[in-house]
Amino acid sequence: MNKVRRIERIIALTKILSDMPGRLFSLGHFSNLFGAAKSTLSEDMVTIKESLQQFGLGTLETVSGAAGGVRFIPSRSEESINELLNELADKLAEPERIIQGGFLYMTDILFNPSLMVQIGEIFRKKLGHLNPDYIMTVETKGIPLALMTARAFDLPLVIVRQGSKVTEGPAVSINYVSGSSKRIQTMSLPRRAIQSGAKVLIIDDFMKAGGTARGMIDLAGEVGVEVVGTGVLVATVEPAKKLVEEYSALLILHDVDQYTKKIDIRPAAMALQAN
Fold it and tell me: How confident is the model at residue 77, as a pLDDT?
């Protein structure tokens, strides 16, 4: 292997670490990869950490011990979070997004990879203290958001199905009542998808009355899993009393007027507060 210049090594290290946030890498791994001493790599890590923090792009976390190493923790600045959420609120307030029934068309936003990466990192910053073992969502529109949140946490994603799939083997199913439509529906979770005793963080795209989130919480209880938190991209201000007692929303939908084509959606106070 040709001798690697320091600037080349730093660029490569930054790329590897940022591509896999939360993944713990030993200095020995990088020493073998670049043919550099661990002391040299430690100096590289200091430079990378300082640069990331200077521009509000995240930080490097060092874990000591024989099984330790270094990992990238995405952490956007409060200023950039506020700017992103205000831009997203403006985009969602476009009159042509109104759908019959007072809902908003959000599919283009939810399936925008670069945007969902950023939202996932915001959830990582706001809810990282909950220390979940899994990220959980329900099919289908919330999957991109939940997947990018799982990426930011470096955790597996568990998808709750509307009904059951024979290809996923034995599953636990429950009936739940949709909070908005009051219809009885079924959701299921494959037994192999998650270990009993694990902690999960629920991530979903939209919450009105909270029936779907309540169903996931009840389903998690049936398989012996603890729900440590619920995060949603958009929650409606009404009904004020949700079927979920505690949740964290990034945006709050206050009103949709189908006649005047006015949409009142704003960043939630939780999202605007620094941790």
Answer: 87
Band of pLDDT at residue 106, cut at 50, 70 and 90: very high
What is the rounded distance in angstroms from the CA atom of residue 133 to the CA atom of residue 52? Answer: 26
Tell me, yes or no, whether 119 and 12 share the same domain.
no
Please say whether the beta carbons of 217 and 244 come within 8 A: yes
- Short-list 236, 234, 231, 235, CA closest to 247: 231
CB 98 within 8 A of CB 104: yes
Q: Is residue 95 part of a domain?
A: yes
Do 83 and 215 share a structural domain?
Answer: yes
Chain centroid to Cα 58, Å, comes to 16
What does the CA dihedral 148, 154, 158, 159 come to, rounded to 10 degrees? 10
Mapped onto helix, strand or coil, the DSSP state of residue 234 is strand
Predicted TM-score (pTM) of this structure: 0.90
End residue of a domain, out of 73, 94, 127: 73
Instruction: Please identify, among 56, 73, 90, the residue that sits at the C-terminal boundary of a domain.
Output: 73
Find out whether 25 and 71 touch, Cβ atoms under 8 Å: yes
In tens, the pLDDT along 54-96 reads 988 999 999 988 788 999 999 888 899 999 999 999 999 999 9
Give yes or no: residues 119 and 142 share one domain. yes
Look at residue 1 and tell me if it is in a domain: no
Domain of 44? Answer: 6-73
pLDDT at 89: 97
**H or E segment to which residue 99 belongs:** strand 98-99
- Which of 118-127, 163-172, 202-211, 249-258 bottoms out in mean pLDDT, i.e. has the lowest? 163-172
Q: What dihedral angle (degrees, nearest 10) is formed by the CA atoms of 262, 268, 272, 275?
A: -170
In one-letter notation, the amino acid at residue 169 is G
**CATH code assigned at 33:** 1.10.10.10
Q: Which two tokens stand for residue 254?
A: 């206050």
pLDDT of 36 above 90: yes
